[in-house]
From TrEMBL:
InterPro entries documented for this protein: P-loop_NTPase
Organismal lineage: Bacteria, Bacillati, Actinomycetota, Actinomycetes, Kitasatosporales
Gene3D superfamilies reported for this sequence: P-loop containing nucleotide triphosphate hydrolases
Protein name: HPr kinase
């Protein structure tokens, strides 16, 4: 799989990625990655690197699809709701979208004998530049667990350099709290939806994911240049359909920056409700806090990344679970954990959420 290409190096969560892209696609790919790159406070390097080659070539795509048409395959679902067919052709592993699924049949993933990862795109692929981030995210998660870090279903921001982990299940209000801190206290964005806590529970580190914002939060916020419009989104509490923006777009909308890491100073567990209950924060005892965090810990079992895919898991799941348990014990022993309750129909919602959180930080 050769061709004229340029290689750039990008670092996410301390892991170095060498990304080779065909000349015709290089600008689009680099611009997309730039919108996810941290601007400050890089995480400690892991000392490892991963090579990814992005091929944007009609003839190559058709040739590989023809070769795979008659190859034996096994159906796998490495990411929730996204089935692929895994085939081994010689020493190369190939993944192609299951043709009976909703996935577009315009891309292929491959892993060669040297461990290099490949993405083969048809030039007509819609937003083909986004596929490389799927690979990067999964490698970041595998690398983090190997380092003794744990992933949480969480967002995170930094207020004056102090890291705030905002953890909870889908619909709990994580992005609402993150938006409140950014809008009213200029919080830097660290991560959205998945956040890593380092060994010893000392710091939070972001995973490069888009920020998804509910229509209700956008309507409460009002028009902000650079953020998606919420006019066509449902504003009902708990609505599944949300707007999406890159980390850079989200941060710049509030005059903040994308920060990769920060010392962990506070954990917030949002508990928003569909009423006008006033905003309040309550510190939890270690036992209650530990139980709540266990419910949103994604190491070693993640509800979205269902199985290792592009990067092998080098430590057994049982060992990873014990490590995550120990990390959570340390976390609740050294970092305050606050349950934040609020009704989404209460007045000045975002401003009051931000005030309750920053008072606790102080």
């Amino acid at each position: 799989m050769n061709g004229r290409r340029g290689t750039t190096t990008r670092v996410f969560a301390g892991h170095r990625f060498h990304i080779g892209t065909d000349a015709a696609f290089r600008v689009a790919q680099d611009l997309h990655l730039q919108r996810f790159l941290p601007e400050m406070a890089p995480a400690r390097r892991c000392g490892q690197h991963t090579t990814i080659r992005v091929h944007h070539n009609t003839d190559l795509f058709r040739d590989r699809m023809d070769r795979l048409a008659d190859a034996p395959w096994t159906k796998v679902v490495p990411f929730r709701g996204e089935p692929y067919l895994l085939s081994r052709v010689g020493a190369v592993c190939w993944w192609r979208p299951d043709p009976v699924s909703h996935l577009p049949a315009d891309h292929l993933y491959a892993k060669d004998p040297r461990g290099q990862l490949h993405i083969v795109l048809h030039p007509g692929t819609d937003r083909g530049e986004r596929y490389v981030l799927r690979v990067i995210r999964e490698v970041v998660l595998r690398c983090a667990e190997h380092r003794g870090w744990a992933a949480f279903h969480a967002a995170a921001g930094a207020v004056a350099g102090h890291g705030v982990l905002i953890a909870g299940p889908s619909g709990a209000g994580k992005t609402t709290v993150l938006t409140a801190l950014a809008a009213h206290h200029g919080a830097d964005l660290i991560g959205s939806d998945r956040v890593l806590v380092t060994e010893g529970a000392t710091s939070v580190v972001g995973v490069p994911l888009s920020v998804r914002i509910a229509g209700g939060t956008l309507s409460t916020l009002g028009p902000v240049q650079g953020l998606p419009s919420g006019r066509l989104l449902p504003t009902d509490f708990g609505a599944v359909r949300k707007a999406s923006c890159t980390p850079q777009d989200f941060s710049r909308a509030f005059g903040a920056r994308v920060r990769e890491s920060a010392p962990l100073r506070l954990v917030v567990l949002p508990r928003l409700s569909d009423d006008d209950q006033q905003v309040s924060g309550t510190l939890l005892c270690p036992h209650t806090a530990r139980s709540a965090l266990a419910g949103v810990c994604c190491t070693p079992h993640d509800e979205d990344w269902l199985r290792p895919w592009f990067a092998d898991r080098v430590r057994p799941a049982g060992e990873l679970a014990r490590g995550a348990d120990g990390l959570m014990d340390l976390l609740v022993a050294r970092v305050p954990v606050m349950a934040l309750t609020a009704g989404v129909h209460s007045s000045h919602l975002l401003e009051r959420i931000a005030d309750v959180v920053t008072r606790r930080l102080a």
